[in-house]
Every structure is written in C-alpha cells, then in structure tokens.
Design brief:
The protein has about 280 residues and is an alpha+beta fold. The chain has helices at about 25-35, 75-85, 175-185, 220-235; strands spanning about 1-10, 10-15, 45-50, 55-65, 70, 95-100, 100-110, 115-120, 145, 150-160, 160-165, 195-200, 205-210, 215-220, 240-245, 250-255, 260-265, 270-275. The chain has two domains: about 1-120 and about 265-275, Diaminopimelate Epimerase, Chain A, domain 1; about 130-260, Diaminopimelate Epimerase, Chain A, domain 1 (Roll). It has an 18-stranded mixed sheet that branches. The longest helix has 13 residues, at about 75-85. It is globular, with a radius of gyration of 18 Å.
C-alpha cells in the first residue's frame, strides 16, 4: 500500500490515496499498525483520501487506536494540499467532505504547490445532546467536572466532533497526560471527547495543549483550536479572532459573527512517501 506522510502544525497522519488504490480491507487494524511510532510509519492516525459524489474528495480519518473520527482540522488541510499538489483537482478553492459534512477550503499557492489553507469549518454545534454530552447547558458553559482529584470548569462544544475545553492558569503534563485521558473517557461524554487545556495569554492569543480522543496528546488539534475559539467568545475570555499557539505551531482562528462559521488558517506540509508492507 502506497502512502504519504503529511503534517499540519505537527499533527501528523499517514495518508492513502484511494483514487489510485483500493481502501485497505481492515482499516481499523491498518490504522493501529501503521500509526505505531516504533513498529510502523508513525503518526496520530490514518487518513484515507477517497472519491465522492458532489465534492473533490472525501476524508476518512482514523485515530491511532483504530477508532473512526468525524473530522480533523489539520488533516483536512493536508488532504486539500494532496488533492491539489497531486493533480486530483487543480483549483484554489476545494470542496471536501468528512463525517457527512461538506467543507470549503481556500488554498494559498506558492511555486505551484499549496503552502497554507483556510478552512470554512462551518457552524459550531452548541446543543448538548448533539455534541454529545450530558453536562447541563446548551452548550455547557463553565460546567463543573471532577476528574483525577481536580474539580474543573469546562465548556463543551462540537466542531463535527466533540470537545471539552478547560481553562487553566498554567499548562502542565500532570493535567494534560494525567487528567486528559480521564476526561476523554468520562461518563458525561457518551462518544468520548477531545480535551483542550488552554492558557489565555491575552484576548487575541492563547496557548493550547490537547489530549486527543483515541490518539493521546498531539502536537496540534485543528478542530480543538476551533472549539477553543468558540469557547473563548462564549465565556468572554477572548475575541472572535484569536491566534492559538500549539506545541507544533500556530493556527489563526475566526468565529465570524455574520455567518456563524468558524474559519481556520494554517500550514499543510508533505513529509515523505513510501510503501507499507505490514
């Protein structure tokens, strides 16, 4: 199976072009094996780039543990770069589906290849039952949640996948790696949840670390950065335009008041290609 390794702000996945080859027969098992950083290619998961009616491509994203995920903001930027750079669709505005939702992506081209991508991530989902979570509120704002001996105030939203945003005075390994997996599997989140720990630097800049559902801590999470942008506005901490500083780099976010859509801009980089015989 031929593959391409790509990353967006350090959020790295193994990509398979299913325009040119068949979908792997056991995707979950393949995702687990190929994502292993010691015995496989290594990555936060596996992403399939597939043909689809009514759009330029479909993204099918699987976490490192083999579980399916509805959306990946960094991943979809890399899908757009692959689709353009490899000649599947040579337009500077692409339409890509993921998890049953359609996304529009504006490409910045440099020397004939995609350099940065602005994604229309659509409207945030703010109804608790649709996020989904059993925490009170639509959406839950500053809701109390106890995990690992900590009583935290959390805000939960969905960007096509569920997120739990936790504002802290200081980011720490103990919180992210110790409390993160407990929140991910908390009973208030029936489909588990991605957890963002956020330190506010000022009203236009925050620092974020993410414990990602099914993958553990990742260097970046695009949908998580969108959720942080929305949560910052809803809780009165930040403006509608904000720079989110992640371990792997910065993303620019805007929750547009006129359209209610969240826009994310960031890099997309192809690292290497190879052939998997696992």
């Amino acid at each position: 199976m031929k593959f391409t390794k790509m990353q967006g702000a350090g959020n790295d996945y193994v990509y398979v072009d299913c325009f040119a080859q068949s979908v792997p027969p056991d995707v979950a098992k393949t995702a687990q094996a190929i994502s292993d950083r010691h015995f496989g290619v290594g990555g936060d998961g596996l992403i399939l780039i597939c043909p689809v009616d009514g759009a330029d491509a479909e993204m099918r994203m699987y976490n490192a543990d083999g579980s399916y995920s509805e959306m990946c903001g960094n991943g979809i930027r890399c899908v757009a770069k692959y689709v353009y750079d490899h000649g599947i669709a040579r337009r500077d505005v692409l339409r890509i589906t993921s998890g049953g939702r359609l996304y529009e992506l504006q490409l910045t081209i440099a020397d004939g290849k995609v350099d940065r991508v602005r994604v229309d991530m659509g409207e945030p989902i703010l109804t608790a039952a649709e996020i989904p979570t059993t925490l009170p509120g639509n959406p839950p704002l500053k809701a109390p949640l106890t995990a690992g001996g900590h009583t935290l105030e959390v805000t939960s939203v969905s960007m096509g996948n569920p997120h739990c945003v936790v504002y802290v005075d200081e980011l720490s390994d103990e919180l992210v790696r110790g409390t993160g997996p407990l929140i991910e599997n908390d009973a208030h989140f029936p489909r588990r949840v991605n957890v963002e720990f956020v330190q506010v630097l000022n009203r236009e800049s925050v620092r974020q670390r993410t414990w990602e559902r099914g993958s553990g801590e990742t260097l970046a999470c695009g949908t998580g950065a969108c959720a942080v942008c929305v949560a910052g506005v809803l809780t009165g901490r930040t403006e509608r335009r904000v720079t989110v500083k992640l371990l792997g780099g910065d993303l620019q976010l805007e929750w547009d008041e006129a359209t209610n859509h969240v826009f994310m801009t960031g890099p997309a980089i192809e690292v290497f290609s190879g052939e998997w015989n696992g």
